[in-house]
Amino acid sequence: MTDREARTARNQERSLEAFLQQKARFDAMVAELQQMSADHFGADAEDVLWGKAATLEHWNSRLASVTDCYFKRGEFAE
Fold first, then answer.
1. Which of 27, 40, 50, 74 matches a 20 to 30 Å C-alpha distance to 11?
2. What is the distance between the alpha carbons of residues 5 and 11, in angstroms, rounded to a whole number?
3. What is the value of pTM for the model shown?
4. 8: part of which helix (H) or strand (E)?
């Protein structure tokens, strides 16, 4: 293996390590989001007003940006 090939292999290993760390972070956030949803985002049915709905709408729009980018929808469509 040449020096260049060795550097390329080490770079790929470090890239994979960084990717897997970020994936673990992403998976942890998804699990937290699922927990938040199961808890109805801390909302009590007797106390839900427009503010809670607006907050959830805002969060949904931010999540939609991520999913739209990945699935190439909306402004990210090709």
1. 27
2. 10
3. 0.82
4. helix 3-38
Segment 4-52, tens digit of pLDDT? 999 999 999 999 999 999 999 999 999 999 999 999 999 998 989 999 9
CB atoms within 10 A of CB 52: 15
Instruction: Retrieve residue 7's tokens.
Output: 């550097």
Decide if 33 contacts 42 (C-beta within 8 A).
Answer: no
> Please, are residues 73 and 67 in contact by the beta-carbon 8 Å criterion?
yes
Question: Under a CB-based contact definition with an 8 Å cutoff, are residues 61 and 67 in contact?
Answer: no
Across the chain, the runs of DSSP E, i.e. the strands, are none
Query: DSSP letter at 41?
Result: G
CA atoms of 26 and 72, how far apart (whole Å): 19
* Token pair 């550097």 in the structure block, residue: 7
**Would you say 51 and 44 are in contact if contact means Cβ atoms under 8 Å apart?**
no
